[in-house]
Amino acid sequence: ADRLKDAFAVLCMLRVHNLPVTSTTSQPIFQAIHSNPALLEPAWGAVEELHREGTTLDVSCVNVLMQVSVAQGDLQRALGAHSIMGELGLTATPETFNILMSGAFAAQNRALGETLFQDLKAAKLVPLAETYERMIALSLIGDDYEDAFQYLEDMKTAGYPPSGKAYENIIRRCIVGQDERYFMAVEEMQSHG
Fold first, then answer.
1. Neighbours of 19 (CB within 10 A)
2. DSSP letter at 144?
3. How far is C-alpha 89 from the geometric centre of its chain's CA atoms?
4. What is the predicted pLDDT for the residue at 193?
5. Taking the complete model, does pTM exceed 0.85, yes or no?
6. Which pLDDT belongs to residue 81?
7. Which of 55, 56, 116, 131 is the least buried, fewest Cβ under 10 Å from its Cβ?
8. For residue 182, what pLDDT is reported?
9. Regions in the chain scoring below 70 on pLDDT
10. pLDDT (tens digit, 9 = 90+) per residue, 63-96?
């Protein structure tokens, strides 16, 4: 438990010294906890203890725990973590929402993904390319997938080139739905390389 606390303290210290903290930075913590699920509870305890001690937490501390929860299929725990971020003095980031959207996709919960996207925008956060990719994938769940095309357009308008995977998902869904717009998606994918 002390090693976990030290690992989280390092993330906090990096931020205090204006050094970038990314998901790559916290990846060793993710791997350690994901490979040993029994560490998740002590990890939460370590983060809460740092907060009680007056340490200014970095959002990556909670994001990595949410990421582990999603990877373990515990979307409710990840959503619960999101709901207490304010109590820990933290504000969600686009990465926070992307983690939760991954969980929504894994649960095939399109409505939750749409709610999260609206919450992200209400928080005046700018969606990332990854955010649009996740919303495209979520929008392809179910019979009505018109929103996927809108998210694709929004993504391009925001200056993010859609990935081949985004196009492949749309093409696959169009073929399954016998939707001739797959021709347009194929042409667009080829023109974007």
1. 10
2. -
3. 20
4. 60
5. yes
6. 95
7. 56
8. 84
9. 1, 193
10. 999 999 999 999 999 999 999 999 999 999 999 9
Largest CA distance in the chain: 60
The answer to whether residues 47 and 65 touch, using CB atoms and an 8 Å cutoff, is yes
The residue whose two tokens read 């501390």 is 61
Catalogue the long-range contacts made by 92-96 (C-beta closer than 8 Å, 24 or more residues apart). Answer: 92/59, 92/120, 92/123, 92/125, 93/59, 93/63, 93/125, 94/120, 94/125, 94/126, 94/127, 94/128, 94/131, 95/23, 95/59, 95/63, 95/128, 96/59, 96/62, 96/63, 96/66
pLDDT of 56: 92
Say how far apart CA 65 and CA 70 lie, in whole Å: 9
- Cβ atoms of 52 and 88 closer than 8 Å: no
pLDDT in tens, 146-162: 999 999 999 999 999 99
Report the distance separating Cα 135 and Cα 111, nearest Å: 11
Q: Work out whether the CA dihedral 44, 50, 54, 59 comes out positive or negative.
A: negative
Res 11: pLDDT: 92
Give residue 108's identity as a one-letter amino acid code: Q
